[in-house]
Amino acid sequence: METLQLSADAADLDKAAAWIKNGEVVGMPTETVYGLAADACNPEAVAKVFAAKGRPADNPLIVHIADMDMLPELVCEIPPLAYRLAETFWPGPLTMIFKKQDCIPAITSGGLNTVGIRMPAHPAALELIRLAGVPIAAPSGNVSGYPSPTTAAHMVRDMSGKIAAIVDGGDCTVGVESTVISFEDENTVRILRPGGVTQEQLLTIAEHVVIDPAILHELQEGQSVRSPGMKYQHYSPAAHVVLAEGDYAGFCSYVNSHAGNNTYALVFDGEGEGLSVPAMTFGKDDRQQAQQLFAALRELDERGACNVFVRAPEPSGIGLAVYNRLIRAAGFEVIQV
Ligand code: AMP
Ligand code: MG
Description:
Elements: E1 4-6, H1 10-21, E2 26-28, E3 35-39, H2 43-53, E4 63-64, H3 71-74, E5 75-76, H4 80-89, E6 94-100, E7 114-118, H5 123-132, E8 136-137, H6 152-159, E9 165-167, E10 179-185, E11 188-193, H7 199-202, E12 208-211, E13 240-245, H8 248-257, E14 263-267, E15 279-281, H9 286-302, E16 307-311, H10 319-329, E17 334-336
Parallel strand pairs: 1-9, 2-9, 4-7, 6-10, 11-12, 13-16, 13-17, 14-15, 14-16
Antiparallel strand pairs: 2-3, 3-8, 4-8, 5-6, 6-7, 10-11
Bound molecules: adenosine monophosphate and magnesium ion.
């Protein structure tokens, strides 16, 4: 299949919406990462998303809406706290899990009786949902297991020839995926995946915000999960990634004494001095690190890196999401330096 490369202007969004209405898959920009967009209520269209990504069938897709009227048509039992969160964080990088209605097919929800809903903040995504006139299922647009795409070029690399079109809406501004939450009781939410909306931000609306232990720790064999995505290897470039916790001096001496062929360091802006291996940087604060992380991991592959030592960010604020992606990219290989 030839993959059309489209802009985000009105005429091209019309074309992209027509593909979606016809049951095809389109690369869609959002503020978090690029997604693979299909009509969430059309099982054949959603099957094409799973095929393009090579995604396990039990890992559900998030459904994207453009206005609040769409919400009660897709889900039931919406707690008042959800409306308060939506008022503050939608459109934006927050996904809320609800009991689903029958119009969401089992393939979309990975066989669960729940579904994650989000209203994205990117104007092209909102316009595409409105023009298509359907809720849009959209997982991250990477091949399953690889770092998520944050530019149209990343999507072209992963999806060219597999989907109908890719809409170029520029570089993603958030750069990590949405925060996924479930509701525990009327005042408590649980973070199942950290993302663009932080625990601190959620606490301005919800009384209690629980961080699921699987966010920071490797699952033990037989342990059950609250979110299927927690089971799978994620965000990994071809290079072998090791996450190093500790100060910069300790990082340099460890890396310099463990440098092999094609070893790289991924460090923060302003660092790099004192290293005997080539260094790439990924931002000076947690927001920039989130925005640049996936592009940096992809770039290391382009440069032919075999081993990459990465400076660990503080796991607070949006840094929790960056840290969560990095421990998974590293297959939980975390060292103290
Ligand atoms: P992605 O589509 O790549 O952004 O990943 C979506 C994430 O949300 C995965 O980790 C899923 O397991 C999680 N997710 C989606 N729907 C649900 C749901 N109904 N219950 C729990 N987790 C979900
Ligand atoms: Mg993903």
